[in-house]
Amino acid sequence: MPRYTNPSDYLLKLATDTRLVSADLSIEELVRHADKSYAHYVKEETTSLSKLKASSLKSIKTVRGTHFAKQFKILLRRYGIGLIRVPLALFALFGMAIFSVFMISSIF
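Below the sequence we write its predicted C-alpha cells.
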C-alpha cells in the first residue's frame, strides 16, 4: 500500500480489484490482507511518535472554538476580496438586487 493512503480507500480498492474476486472472498479476508500490507506503516508511525517528547507536544497551541463574530469577519473579508477581484460580480449583485426590488414590489 502506498504511503499516506487512507486504509478505507485501500480496502475499497482491494474489494474492487478483479484479481481478488472469488467465491470465498469475505470482509475478514480483505481486512486481513489490508492489515498485513499496512502493518509496516503503522509500526513506523508508532515508533516515530514514541520518539516525540510530551513537552514538545505541549508547545502546540490549538484553538478549540471560534466565535461567531470572528467567523463572520473572515467570511465577509473573503467575500469582499472576491468581489474586488471580479468587478463584474459586483454589478451582477446590484442587478439582482434591483430585479428583486421590482419583482417583490410588483407582487405586493
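Residues 68-107 form one domain.
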